[in-house]
Amino acid sequence: MDFALKDKTVLVTGASGGIGRALAESFLEEGARVALQGHTQFDAMQHWLAKKSADQRDRSLCLRGDLSNSDDCDQIVATISETWGRLDVCIANAGHWPPDDIPLHAMDPQRMRRTLEVNLLGSAWTARAFLKLLASTGPRDDGHGASLIFVGSTAGRYGERHHADYATAKAGLTGLMATLKHEIVDIDPFGRVNCIEPGWTVTHKARPDLLEAESLQRVLATMPLRQLGRATDIARTALYLASPTLARHVTGQTLVVAGGMEGRMRWQPGQVDENAVKQRLAQDEAPGLSRPP
Ligand SMILES: NC(=O)c1ccc[n+]([C@@H]2O[C@H](COP(=O)([O-])OP(=O)(O)OC[C@H]3O[C@@H](n4cnc5c(N)ncnc54)[C@H](OP(=O)(O)O)[C@@H]3O)[C@@H](O)[C@H]2O)c1
User: Fold this and answer.
1) Are 174 and 231 in contact (CB under 8 A)?
2) 9 close to ligand 1 (CB < 6 Angstrom)
3) What is the pTM of this model?
4) Could you give the domains of the chain?
């Protein structure tokens, strides 16, 4: 299948992470020129890339930066511009899920701020730098529109108990996408903005606790496909959304790649006290109390 991505220039943020690595690999396999952004794991990312073929290395660029800092985003995109002259596809994939389970009422404001800065503002600064460059280069002359892709999370759709910071940041991407789909066409009439929401996704950095039987039962409970997603599932979806031919008429959409997940399982088996439920119902039916219609 031809995604028409050969020689297109692509930025993958968070390419030092699990999903980002699969994204970079897939776009390199399609013949694109790929800028890989890393932060704390930058050296490991370079090491991984060094094992790729000479052809793929020649089409790659490794860039370091903290995306919660808008200057770093501008610098990364400026380097791409100096090297390749333009940027056709931008995948704002970098993100951080703070592992500690903390309800909002006990959450340090610093954690809330940092999570929003990395996941929401980091994506916004990335998009801003990309659109700024697009505004200066103008659209391609072959009619292949630019593509901006955010990587959100099902946490933004269903919420995630004890991770209000992360769920809020990811939900914010929906508003950003819905706005930027209008702004991009003022710069590039065929430009598109979309979002991918992964569910539980195994990567080379997968959290081993996900594979424990109890976790599996819990995370797969509302998923018809009863499988954990793989990083390549996200990468293939991104190839489609980035393709100026296959997804030519697709913008402002969120593709949920989560095995059909329908929400989070709130109560574990045994946590619902049937007698208490019946007792409460009987109380509500007592004389003087109104019954629901
Ligand atoms: N895996 C899942 O189950 C899952 C589910 C839903 C959504 N997602 C989303 O998918 C995306 C990728 O997740 P992943 O599983 O691949 O996570 P990961 O392995 O932890 O990778 C995260 C990436 O983001 C980068 N990053 C984090 N904070 C950064 C910052 N301040 N500045 C620059 N880069 C930063 C990391 O860079 P360094 O490591 O170099 O610091 C790394 O490359 C994230 O947005 C995540 O929220 C993942």
Assistant:
1) no
2) no
3) 0.96
4) 9-284 (3.40.50.720)
